[in-house]
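Posting here for the record, re: coenzyme A.
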Amino acid sequence: MNNVTIAGIGAYVPSLVVTNEKISEFVDTNNDWIVERTGITERRISEGENTSDISIEAAKIALERAGVKAEDLDLIIVATISPDMFIPSVACIMQSKLNAGKAACFDISVACSGFLYGLEIANSMMKSMNYKNALVVGAEVLSKVMDWSDRGTCILFGDGGGAAVLKNEPSDSKGIIKSYLRSDGAKGEALTIGAADFNTPFTKEPQLKDRIIKMNGREVFKFATNAIVESVNEILKDTGVSLDEIKYIVPHQANYRIIKSAANKLGIDEERWYLNLDRFGNTSAGSVPIVLNEMYEKNLINKGDKFILVAFGGGLTYAATLVEW
Ligand code: COA
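Prediction output follows.
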């Protein structure tokens, strides 16, 4: 029987490391505060590489590991809230630079939950359209939309991304077993990035947007903890899989305290949550594939292992996916 499996994973982050000490040179903060409240010690910041550049580097690694040629891709989905431009999409830019001529290409805007939404969209499309190979990317250059004078946000985020090559073929692995995708648009104002101004010869009142991240940190914190607990519980209930069968929970890397609080509420040992946010901060849609890539490179992922991926973010959106490698 055909299953949609993750056949290759890759990630890429810019080389510039920006420490908490460096950030405290231009906003009123300090290393101890940031580490204690978030768990983050450093993040990568782009000096000019755009979202498509990061996506392409991550994709090349994933394609190589999957043994898939770019020209054999049927689908490219990029989850990002910091695209190079409105059009062409990052996915179309990738198609051109990778020579993935026959792929259907589009971006999705689901903020930090984007990679998980992308996995499920690809999974469903591969089955309904009989696609063989797909590329799902989560990548961001959030530094472009950061307010570098706001200590409440600029300490949290980093740039980077990851990519997964999916195959739809007969396999012993069940691959993407189940997704739980939810949104709460009523709370959208808690985390926003403005887009283009509304200022035409016909507008009654021009609306000029702040093209920077604005966030109500406490509101997002509460939402995030509940979103993780609900998503993990729902995916377990829906599939009948027990916690003992899960090797790792792979959470979106926003804040150590959010994950600790959700882990306590769910009664799942902290050691079973894989974290690397200390070194990369919150890379939004990039965070889950960056973590998966690190786990893969540390040989923590073996055939047959089951993981729950869980994410939450702007929209507000949240999601969990049960995956067998
Ligand atoms: N350095 C030093 N002090 C800071 C600071 C910083 N970087 N940021 C805020 N503070 C100050 C505040 O001004 C406030 O001071 P006051 O008490 O004198 O008013 C105090 O620290 C507490 O602020 P508060 O906002 O209540 O802190 P917090 O414990 O909620 O931590 C966040 C702030 C942003 C770290 C936390 O709310 C958070 O992580 N929220 C979730 C954000 C997130 O993950 N977003 C992305 C989701 S995908």
